[in-house]
């Protein structure tokens, strides 16, 4: 049975949510599920804006058929060719063989890579920056947004109703639960953390490209943002855009300390637990601790984008960095985090090496400062080394003050 929601008089959300998928992109845990948004514009022409992941195709096609109400599908706009949004293009064209595909040249090449469609050239409407498509009352303008999150990505601006179809940008992890507008939920309390985790892990590497899109969006009069995942925005757009500005410029949202540790028998953990207590004694707030073997890297990366100061503590393992910490640091440098103050602590019973190697990896991050020195434990924190923890806590607290 169809399940849709009206966005405006002419626009209907016809997407669906998946609460069964364990790992988005087969990497990121999504305990609250994920939504795949698709929108149908009914004007003199009918326009489908993106499709969905194959996991929700049955619901999608029921929704599409219901909202079309027997009308033909004239156009399908492909803003993003990643399969979580385009998986159903081939099936769509079997049902609506005359629908024209509106996309850019790079998307057209990707369609040929993913599908064997053998469509005539005239079935494609190829667009480039600033091109428009008039559908009757509405005019859709196409704005290129390369690397937000793939190179072919574009966004579509409906000049008539001032709506930005933003592809992956402004999305969030989490299924939709009836409420589709961000103003229908307590977004800051219930969804901001997952929106941050979604942004930083999916698009975080491409801050300059997101900045370029934000600059283009800044020239548009936008009343609605309609992303491909999560909520539609029609209120407080500036608040969410400001979050994107912080994340894409790698500026911390708040002062605070993220402590990520890799500990085997608890001694490294003990040292950073003491550090956290000393930080708190000195008035530091927003201390977040993570065991890298227990918390998926995506959560730690999101919090590293959130807060200003980072502490990494790890045991030495195979003459290198404890494997789960090594994976986290590799993931973090791949996501291009910048502008942070970083401290390190390592541990080793006979040859502590992790601190040196963690710093070598973290040195790839732009505009980051290390607090000196690395604290190096031999098996466990000794009474004699307590002063080193105390000094580190004071250095961090002074920087935060
Ligand atoms: Fe939601 Fe880049 O796909």
Short key terms for the protein model shown above:
401 residues; alpha/beta; seven-stranded mixed sheet; 13 helices; 23 strands; 33% helix; binds MU-OXO-diiron
Structure overview:
By secondary structure, the protein is an alpha/beta fold. Helices cover 33% and strands 23% of the residues. It contains 13 helices and 23 strands. It has helices spanning 57-68, 83-86, 89-95, 105-114, 187-190, 192-202, 207-217, 237-248, 267-281, 297-306, 323-334, 354-362, 386-400, and strands spanning 5-6, 11-13, 16-18, 23-24, 28-29, 34-36, 39-42, 46-49, 75-77, 100-103, 124-126, 132-134, 139-144, 154-158, 163-165, 224-226, 254-262, 287-291, 307-317, 320-321, 341-347, 369-370, 375-377. Strands 1-2-7-8-9-10-11 form a 7-stranded mixed sheet. Strands 17, 18, 19, 20, 21, 22 and 23 form a 7-stranded mixed sheet that branches. Strand 8 (46-49), helix 1 and strand 9 (75-77) form a beta-alpha-beta unit. Helix 6 crosses helix 10 (297-306) and helix 9 (267-281) crosses helix 13. It is elongated. MU-OXO-diiron (FEO) is lined by residues 80, 82, 84-85, 149-150, 168, 228-229.
